[in-house]
Amino acid sequence: MSKLFAPATLGTPDGTGLELRNRTFLAPMCQYSITKRDGVPHAWQMTHLGARAAGGFALVYTEATAVTAQGRISDQDTGIWNDDQAEAWAPIVDFIHSQGAAAGIQLAHAGGKASTYAWLPGHTAAGQRGNLRPRDGGWETIGPSATDVLGLASPTAMTQEQIDASISDWAAAARRADAAGFDVVQIHAAHGYLIHQFLSPLTNTRTDAYGGSFENRTRYAREVITAVREAWPAHKPLAIRLSGDDWVQGGWSIADTARFALEAFGMGVGAFDLSSAGIGAYHGPSGPGFQVSLAAAVKAAVPGAFVTAVGLITEPAQAEQVLVTGAADGVSIGRAALKNPNWPAIAAAELGEPHENIPFPAQYWRANW
Ligand code: FNR
User: Fold this and answer.
1) pLDDT value, residue 22
2) Which segments constitute the NADH:flavin oxidoreductase/NADH oxidase N-terminal domain (predicted)?
């Protein structure tokens, strides 16, 4: 049996753990498809996520799903800040379960990177990148500091009251995610969005308890984790997605990430997905497996955590190698899964898994996996 298709367990505070059929995760990917602009998921999310659950992924993550309307990247993002949204997620979760996959929701707040155009062809004509101003149908954004290092319009620096309110929003979203039946919450702390804006010295210039030292810059993230962990049942795993490195001198580094991940693990975060960057222009490496070293660093620093690698992992043998070398415990697949929803089933066949371990739906048995 391959490592990639060996069952896995995501740890939980109560010790029960969540069993997964293999180690392939669908990476969270915004779909910019909520044309009613109400954050309510619909047939597109059912089809997109459902097809990938049927295609064999062990854990299917939703796109970045906003904890408040203000925290959406664009007005076509999904949300879970109200009960209508939670109720619309429930049948999608049920279908994912019916296909043998676990359902994860990525909870997100875009902070100063909110209120942008939907990143779809035709929505981003030349000169339309960046924030959508309120006069053009956008909204005011908030962040740790009124800094423009993101290359976007500056957010308003959050007051203590706004910080407190936003912590409550994360917790309320986690409670609704539980009601909708999700198995895993992943906190989006990567890609230059709100939590990452607090973590990185490039975007956090506060002089109060939320800025300056490592301890202060990580305070907002710790408060989010504490609140979500309290709201999220102890038998369900809590995950986090981190940008392992800003790839910029003076930015958030992999050493910071490893230190923070160890703290987060101690606070009940069991699973870590290691992406990178998101603040300003990209200065990092590129090419196959370009972020695997970040996962390996966290795996070495946090024994007992379940760590996934992501980023241009496209080939089954390459994914298997990530696990065989001990760099990570699982892989998150993004664009390769857009091209091919059956990526896991085909990978299992290619890696020589026995027929009973190839995750395909019974309806497709004639495909002769
Ligand atoms: C993404 N990515 C992403 N990441 C995230 O944390 N939340 C999100 O909602 C999105 N949205 C999104 C949309 C689309 C269309 C793409 C292609 C990507 C990043 C994604 O999860 C992944 O980290 C990267 O795509 C790198 O992995 P791959 O695609 O090389 O496997």
Assistant:
1) 98
2) 3-348
Closest ligand 1 atom to Cα of 241: 6
- Which of ligand 1's atoms lies nearest the C-alpha of 313? 31
C-beta of residue 73 within 8 angstroms of C-beta of residue 169: no
Binding pocket residue ranges, ligand 1, CB within 6 Å: 27-30, 63-64, 106, 188, 190-191, 241, 275, 310-313, 333-336
Domain ranges of the chain: 8-367
Closest CA to 206 of 263, 153, 268, 144: 144
- Report how far apart, in Å, the C-alpha atoms of 223 and of each of 106, 229, 275, 283, 349 are: 17, 10, 22, 30, 44
CATH for 8-367, options being 3.30.420.10, 3.20.20.70, 3.40.50.720, 3.30.428.10: 3.20.20.70
Q: Which amino acid belongs to residue 296?
A: A
Name the residue with the closest Cα to ligand 1, atom 18. Answer: 29
Residues in the chain, how many? Answer: 369
Long-range Cβ contacts of 88-94 (<8 Å, 24+ apart): 88/40, 88/41, 88/42, 89/41, 89/62, 89/177, 89/180, 89/181, 89/182, 90/179, 90/180, 90/181, 91/46, 92/41, 92/45, 92/46, 92/49, 92/50, 93/180, 93/181, 93/182, 94/181
pLDDT, tens only, 256-309: 999 999 999 999 999 999 999 999 899 999 999 999 999 999 999 999 999 999
CA atoms within 13 A on the CB side of 90: 10
- As a whole number of angstroms, the distance between CA 300 and CA 30 comes to 30
For the CA of 188, the closest atom of ligand 1 is 6
Return the residue whose CA atom lies nearest to atom 13 of ligand 1.
Answer: 29
Q: Which helix (H) or strand (E) holds 26?
A: strand 24-26
**Backbone dihedral angles phi then psi of residue 83, each to the nearest 5 degrees:** -70, -30
Please identify every residue annotated as catalytic. Answer: 193
What is the DSSP track for 66-131?
Answer: ESSGGG-SBTTS-B-SSHHHHHHHHHHHHHHHHTT-EEEEEEE--GGG-SB---STTTS-TT--SB
CA distance 197 to 143: 7
On whether ipTM exceeds 0.95, the answer is: yes
Q: What residue owns the CA closest to ligand 1's atom 10? A: 29
